[in-house]
Amino acid sequence: MILLKRKNFRFFFVKPLLFSAECPSWPQSVKDMKTTNRLRPVDPQYCIQCGKPLPPGRPDRKFCSAQCKNRWHNAQTGRYNNYRLRVISALDKNHRILLQLHDAGIRSVPKIEALSMGFQPDYFTGCNGVRSHVEYICFDIRYHVSMNRIWGIVRFEPLLLGL
How far apart are the C-alpha atoms of 4 and 13, rounded to whole Å? Predict the structure, then answer.
């Protein structure tokens, strides 16, 4: 096994399995391929996190220690959580900017000025087609976006059904 490292991510390169009768997990026919579980991409004798040999124990063991297991699972869920947190923070920042404009009595602002404040027009919680334009919603604030302006900033009371 060759371990290739790139920053904090680890990539494993494993030699391909030989197609022979010596490998019992290799499907011998199309029927076997349908019923056989998918092959494990990493050599089962080595930890999939750090690449060290596995200590004796269960035959289906994947990690050499609880620390490696936690690191691997945290890395897997961390990517999704980071993406989700970036979206939530962008929505929160947009809402904060729109709320400041609304509370100051500003109903229309040049798009360049809003962008310089940190507004990200690609993040919103809903949109409706109204006549010839699109009405965007960011939580409890409605607004419209044109080529060079953000206008019609209005706060509304959302319907809280079942709460």
Answer: 7
Q: Which residues contact 4 (CB under 8 A, 6 or more apart)?
A: 10, 11, 12, 13
Of the two residues 44 and 13, the one the predictor is more confident about is 44
**CA 135 to CA 75: how far, in whole Å?**
38
The pair of three-digit structure tokens given for residue 60, joined into one six-digit string: 């289906």
From 91, 106, 113, 108, select the one nearest 144 (Cα to Cα).
Answer: 108
Count the alpha carbons within 13 Å of 49 in the hemisphere toward its beta carbon: 17
- Other Cβ atoms less than 10 A from the Cβ of 156: the count is 9
- Residue 129 is predicted with a pLDDT of 87
User: pLDDT digits over 114-146, tens only?
Assistant: 999 999 999 999 998 888 889 999 999 999 999
pLDDT at 25 over 60: no
pLDDT at 2 > cutoff 50: no
Say how far apart CA 146 and CA 150 lie, in whole Å.
6
Six-digit token pair at 125? Answer: 């919680």
